Task: inverse folding
């Protein structure tokens, strides 16, 4: 006599698997934010000033 193989996972195990995946994704997201903060991106050395007085006079 063969036993019937239950292919469907139980509701508790599927919820647990999704919760673990969501938790891991949140941890990876927070870790990536901290890593991006540590990188120093170059800042522009020259400040640009735009003169809009000529544009205002045209209106």
Result:
């Amino acid at each position: 006599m063969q036993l019937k193989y239950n292919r469907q996972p139980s509701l508790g195990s599927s919820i647990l698997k999704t919760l673990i995946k969501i938790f891991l994704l949140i941890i990876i997201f927070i870790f990536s934010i901290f890593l991006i903060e540590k990188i120093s991106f170059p800042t522009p050395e020259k400040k640009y000033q735009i003169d809009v007085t000529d544009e205002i006079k045209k209106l």
Notes: The chain has a mean pLDDT of 80.
